[in-house]
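Hi R.,

As promised on Friday, here is the backbone we talked about, encoded as structure tokens. Could you run it through your design pipeline when you get a chance and send me back a sequence?
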């Protein structure tokens, strides 16, 4: 009997405890803004089904970073080439603390896609420097883009990732500028 009790104690000690339930990682805590922010999101309609994934992901992420969706105004233009003029006019209104551009530039038409993409990016930088309103770009130009469903699906996912990244860059820059402007106003910088 004693031997049975000892064996049973050994057996129960060898039984592994059930694995602990692992809690999901906590939702990241993002800093809040001192003043309300308003963002313009300018999107090209060329390949809308791809580019809209950037907008959708951007809106989700920017809201997680304490900028309400209602404070993001959406604008659609025919193609990426038209984005800089819209960005400039929107920046000049002084209504927006940031402008985000999204578009897909592919081969075709009378312009080479590298020329268009380079022109758009340079023009957006000029808008930002002239107006002091930060402008963010999710205007992408893949080396090769085919209308196949596999390619379209790949770029839809890629644009969703870019939407998250551009929201992060936008929110972090706005926070940084808010701090810097406060320091300048206080005579610290």
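Update: got your reply. Pasting your designed sequence below so it's all in one thread:
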């Amino acid at each position: 009997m004693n031997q049975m009790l000892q064996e049973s104690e050994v057996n129960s000690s060898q039984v592994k405890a059930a694995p602990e339930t692992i809690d999901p990682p906590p939702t990241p805590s993002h800093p809040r803004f001192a003043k309300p922010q308003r963002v313009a999101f300018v999107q090209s309609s060329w390949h809308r089904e791809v580019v809209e994934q950037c907008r959708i992901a951007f809106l989700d992420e920017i809201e997680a970073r304490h900028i309400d969706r209602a404070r993001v105004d959406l604008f659609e233009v025919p193609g990426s080439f038209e984005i800089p003029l819209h960005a400039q006019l929107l920046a000049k209104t002084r209504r927006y603390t940031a402008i985000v551009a999204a578009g897909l530039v592919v081969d075709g038409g009378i312009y080479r896609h590298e020329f268009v993409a380079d022109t758009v990016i340079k023009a957006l930088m000029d808008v930002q420097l002239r107006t002091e309103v930060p402008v963010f770009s999710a205007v992408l130009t893949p080396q090769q883009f085919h209308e196949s469903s596999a390619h379209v699906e790949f770029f839809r996912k890629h644009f969703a990732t870019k939407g998250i990244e551009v929201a992060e860059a936008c929110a972090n820059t706005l926070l940084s500028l808010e701090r810097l402007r406060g320091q300048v106003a206080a005579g610290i910088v």
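One thing I noticed while checking it: DSSP finds five helices and four strands in the chain.

Thanks again,
M.
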